Amino acid sequence: MRLLFPLFLIIPVIEMILLIKVGEWIGVMPTIILVFSTAIIGVTLLRRQGLSTLLRANKKMEQGQVPAEEMVEGMLLAIGGVMLIVPGFFTDFLGLLCLVPLTRRALARRCIKNGIFVQPGMSGSFTSTTSSFRRADEDIIDGEFRRDDQDQIEKNN
């Protein structure tokens, strides 16, 4: 949390310096086109990679496993997508690191290993009584019910 405030000050300064340098190097219009292009590429990558991660998480859940890595990858995808939409080259670079599968998986493993997405004092567990989750197409419905009008029926009889 202590790093958050300096990051909000440092990142815009880095972005402005990079935008000015790139603008001097390739020109103003190509720089603007490049910034918009990275945002479009980011949204496209986010859609594709997000669906892929969701499918892998679903597959792990069907096998009765906790999709921890996929959940962290989902967080990294969201962070990367936001970074690519924010105008600037530094945030685009960081966003691409979060969206490219190879670097995203490495970042996810590192985050899990270091406990970055875990709140202090939080713990949890996962247990399954079956080897896999049941499919939605089975005819088993599990639930409880109570008739609200049962007292009324008994009085009338």
Report on this model:
This protein has 6 helices and no strands. It has a domain at 32-114. By secondary structure, the protein is mainly alpha-helical. Helices cover 69% and strands 0% of the residues. The termini are far apart. The mean pLDDT is 79.
How do the helices and strands line up, and which of them pair or pack?
Blueprint: H1 4-26, H2 28-62, H3 68-85, H4 89-99, H5 101-114, H6 150-156
Organism: BD1-7 clade bacterium
Protein name: Membrane protein FxsA
InterPro entries: FxsA
From the structure above, extract its key features:
69% helix, 157 residues, membrane, 0% strand, mainly alpha
Beta fraction of the residues? Answer: under 5%
Helicity range:
55-70%
Main sheet summary: none
- Runs with pLDDT <50, length 5+? none
N- and C-termini, Cα separation: 67 Å
Radius of gyration (Å): 24 Å
Helix and strand content put the structural class at mainly alpha
Question: What integer is the average pLDDT?
Answer: 79
Number of helices: 6
Pfam families: FxsA
InterPro entries: FxsA
Keywords: Membrane, Transmembrane, Transmembrane helix
Transmembrane segments: 26-46, 75-102
